[in-house]
Design goal:
Layout: H1 2-13, H2 15-24, H3 42-64, H4 74-97, H5 108-123
Length: about 120
C-alpha cells in the first residue's frame, strides 16, 4: 500500500507527470489517479481500482522513460489486484449503508450475507 500511495502522490504532485499520463490515454476521457483518505476507507478500493485501470499507461510511461518514477513490479500488481477484489464487498457494503434516502438498518442482514459471499468469491 505504501508504494501505491507513493505512486499516486508522485502523479498528484507533478503537473508534468499528469500531462504525460493524460497524453497516453488516447481513448475515452482522461483519468487521474485517486488518493485514498483515512476518513473513507472505501477510497482505498477506489485508489486500487484506478491504479489497475491506468496500469497499461503507467507501464508505457515507465518503459519509455518519459517520467522518472518507480512503478510497481509484476508481483506487486498481482497483490494490488487481489487486494482490490477483497476490498470490493466492503466498499459495496459501506456505500449502501451510508445512504440517506432509505432505511439502512433493515439491509444489515442482507449486506452481511452479500459481504460474506463476496469474500468467498474473492478467495476462489
Amino acid at each position: 500500500m505504501k508504494l501505491c500511495r507513493e505512486l499516486v502522490n508522485f502523479f498528484n504532485s507533478s503537473t508534468q507527470a499528469v500531462k504525460k499520463l493524460h497524453s497516453k490515454q488516447v481513448q475515452g476521457r482522461e483519468l487521474h489517479l485517486i488518493q485514498d483518505v483515512t476518513t473513507r476507507w472505501w477510497s482505498t478500493y477506489a485508489m486500487l481500482q484506478r491504479l489497475i485501470r491506468l496500469k497499461p499507461y503507467l507501464c508505457l510511461l515507465e518503459n519509455e522513460g518519459e517520467v522518472d518514477f518507480t512503478n510497481l513490479s509484476n508481483s506487486q500488481w498481482i497483490i494490488v489486484e487481489d487486494l482490490a477484489s477483497l476490498l470490493k464487498p466492503f466498499m459495496i457494503l459501506q456505500k449502501t449503508l451510508e445512504g440517506h434516502a432509505y432505511v439502512t438498518i433493515s439491509l444489515v442482514p442482507y449486506m452481511i450475507y452479500k459481504m460474506r459471499k463476496g469474500l468467498v468469491d474473492a478467495i476462489d
